[in-house]
Sequence to fold (202 residues):
Amino acid sequence: EDGVILLDRRDRVLYMNGTFKNYFSDHLIRTKGKHIDLIFPSLGTKIKALDSIARSYKEPKTFFFDGKTYELNISGLFNHIKRHVGKTVIIRDITEKKATENIVRENEEKYRMIFEKSSDGIFRYNLRENSIEANPALARMLGYDNGKRVDNKYIKEVMDVFREDIINGSGGNKLLQKQVDRINGSKIWVEVSLNKDLRING
Fold:
């Protein structure tokens, strides 16, 4: 549940829900009519600073408070005759979300390093986009020198011999053996293990 606070044009509290109170204090009783700086001094400063940056009230902003990460969204508050009377502040605790994103990013960086440095040929076949990405080892296997620009379109045409196996989920823990063409016209036999990532030994 999001924390919600309504402020008038002088940043005095019109309304504050329970989640907002729980985020920043669990002993607040009377808040209506009080200036945000009197209730949450450091938070009030952050709200005003972010509000001055995002006057368009479009993009949520991220800020840190008391060891946690929050997403802050500020929008205009209007009365029944559409007169601007203040602002609506919505705050969401995204600490766990950010922690998960950091873990995913770290894993992607580790995978990218393995992908680039592996001595095995690896290619990533995106069936939805019908595209392929080959690592340097696979490129060398197919005849590309280190200085030669890798043509992923050509590599895709070569590795399309495995397309049906990928679609049908063939392979599993078994190795598939097939012939593929190198860029100089010669052929080589390769073994392929079909997983989420495809590694090839030539």
The chain has a mean pLDDT of 79. The two ends are 54 Å apart (CA to CA). Residues 95-117 form the longest helix (23 residues).
